[in-house]
Description:
formyl-coa transferase, domain 3; Rossmann fold; three-stranded antiparallel sheet; alpha/beta; six-stranded parallel sheet; 2 domains; 17 helices
Amino acid sequence: MNVETRPLAGIRVLDLTVALSGPYATLLLGGLGAEVIHIEAPGGSDIARTNPPFVGPRGVRFDHMAEDEVSLSIVNRGRNKKSVTLDLKSEKGRALFFELAKHADVVVENMSEGTAARLGVAYEDARRHNPRIVYASINAMGDPSMYPGLKGMDIIVQALSGFMEVTGFADGPPLRAGIPMADMIAPLFAVSGLLAALIERGRTGEGQHVKVSMLDCLASMVAEEHFDVMLEHGYAMRSGNYHDRLAPFGVYPTKDGHVAIVAFQPAWMEGLMEAMGRSDLLQDPRFSGRGPRMRNATALNQIIEAWTKERTSDEVVSELRAKRSVPAAHVRKPQDVLHDPLLHASGAVVYLQHPALRDVRAAGMGMPIRFSRSKAEFDQPTTNIGAANDEILGGLLKLPPAAMAKLRAEGII
């Protein structure tokens, strides 16, 4: 594959990220063709490197990571990145960072509040060395933080955003989403923002600081639903597996699992009632339109449940989707999705490639973006810490071997 066919070919990114939200942003940039230089402290500073499970000669393990093992998290998130080590706490390390910034287009960081400024590598510091730099910061609670001193972990952001309070059943507790939504959504906004800033730089020649807050991103999505108005009119914030405003719309139990059914459109509602042998309900004042169905969603869902419980998931999907074009699908298990050949063919999910995996088959994030002419994929395996020191510091910055050896001896790289 010729990397020049990729959309972001020629864009160089300095990656100062750790954990998930930042590394996912730079993973996307790398998959789109940017040259991503992942800068860590000597020995490694990305906390994803210590996440279990670990893989190595003994297969998959969940206890203490041995020297010949690697975290599956970093195998997943470290692809399409060149690993460079720099001690940014040292004057020499910062000087090398600024030399790299002169050759870069983008910096991405998601350090704890105030850390980049304390290290002296914040936007204004980088801008003094390269006014064209586009500098993206992903933080948890805003800049400055709405909750000073509070560590911005995904579950904390889900809690503060209201996301958890609207997830779950009306008579149960708030629920955390099964995947780290705040960590995964914020980088999407960050990448959108920095790509917009790169386009704007093409017109003005000036870079700028792009700021994204995990809390802002998740709260903006909670605001998509009008929970304030709904609550005022007696509707519960948590509706479990049903969405009353679009009834019938939900997840229904079957003999052998669950199915998702959507039938709020008139033709779909007719098809569902026909399949159930209850076309008479179309004339029932409780279910004759979307407004009445919303007010009587519980009763309607109970009727539908009574029908689905007597059938297998295959039978329900066949009756609705295959015979009547009513949207219906099996609720699949994660392992079914992660090993789905169709999703592997589309590139949304891939099998990770890394020497430590050996006989372990592990699925990882794919690139869910397709182009008519360009190529985008995560096709470069994660490398060891500092594997690109010679290429980037010795090649790009033209540091002689003696200087590189001295930096290593001093613990700068």
